[in-house]
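User: If you would, consider this record:
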Amino acid sequence: MNYIDFLETISQRAGKIILANFSLGMKKEYKEDFSPVTKTDTEVNKIVIEEVHKYFPTHDIKGEEESDMTNKSEYVWVCDPVDGTIPFSAGLQISTFSLALTYKGEPIAGVIFEPFSDRMILAEKGKGAFLNGEKIKVNEKSTIDETFIFALENYRNSKYNLAKFDQKMTEEMNAKIFRFCSILFAGMMVALGEFDAVVFPGKTPHDGAALKIIVEEAGGKMTDIHGNEQRYDGEIQGYIASNGKLQNDLVKIVSENIIERY
């Protein structure tokens, strides 16, 4: 099975589980950082590990809820079984499944699937990004004012606080800042040309691996929060993903307005 077929098949399976388990009054537990985890998170993560073992037995898997890195492979699948567990567990339909294959830390294929609206974006290095089979492209906005940006100003366990960036963008640039606890849902909107950028201050690779390949195959740009390239098979230094035309301006504004927490 090739990578894209695998990503599509496992996404459809994950989506069915997400839809079947979605309800009000959902049972959840809490991790040490007080972020929720549901049976859907663990069930989907487990299935990804099983399927990677079946089809790509020499590869490793790094998941949000469970990993298997015993092969010490240069190929690592990076999975977020439910990005947006907070809204998902509270009865809100704002969450996605994501999976990316990295080689030496670089995402080379990936998927983000939002099952509630049946939106699946697939991308492979050098082959473009596609929403339900139709090629997609980021927007052409080239001025930093009046942008639509998703930014988490104080993400749990993050090294950076973006409160000053938020204030700068809203008060001086008249930007619209969105927050709805699903960074990959927002990232899809960048790849689709609806949002101009997302800024993520966290360190978790599953929150960015699939987005890197998807945004860039859609014509955008994604770097760490300082404007540098980085690996996505281990801890990351946040990221900025944009339509590409705004990338340098955003890196400059973020670098001038972030607060390092530790």
